[in-house]
Amino acid sequence: MDPDAQIAVAMNRVLDAERAAQTSIAECAAQGEELVKRARQRARSILERAHARIIALHAKAARAPEEPAAARDQAAGPVQRIGAAARPESPVRFEMAIAKLTDALLATGLEEM
Questions:
Q1: Is 2 left (phi over 0), alpha (psi -120 to 50) or beta?
Q2: Average per-residue pLDDT for the chain
Q3: C-beta separation of 86 from 101 below 8 A
Q4: Which member of 51, 54, 94, 112 has the lowest number of beta carbons within 10 Å of its beta carbon?
């Protein structure tokens, strides 16, 4: 084979390799775009769920003052009720709540001894 033909064959191999590389690069770019698209969709979905949860929590919090105090105390349990009693409107009520709590704790402590 003459040198010009060898050069032409070599150049064709280089061009073929370049086309194959460009095809591979285009495929990788398409896969990357698809990954980014899916990641954005997941992020949007997470954001929408979080937003819905926030709205539900705000709605629940807005309804909470409308609940009767007895229902809240019953749902809260004994520890919460004692804590609620410790938030009085007057210092006298506060002192009464502290005394009641102290008596309850001392009674429990004596029973365990």
A1: beta
A2: 79
A3: yes
A4: 112
Residue 89, SS3?
coil
> From the CB of residue 22, how many other CB atoms can be counted at a distance below 10 Å?
10
Distance CA 59, CA 56 (A): 5
Q: Rounded to a whole number, what is the distance in angstroms from the first to the last CA of the chain?
A: 107
pLDDT category at 86 given cuts 50, 70, 90 is very low
Nearest 10 degrees: Cα torsion 30, 33, 34, 35: 120
pTM for the whole structure: 0.44
pLDDT digits (tens, 9 = 90+) for 12-39: 999 999 999 999 999 999 999 999 999 9
Give 29-62 as a DSSP string: HHHHHHHHHHHHHHHHHHHHHHHHHHHHHHHHHH
Please report where in the chains the tokens 């704790």 appear, as a residue. Answer: 105
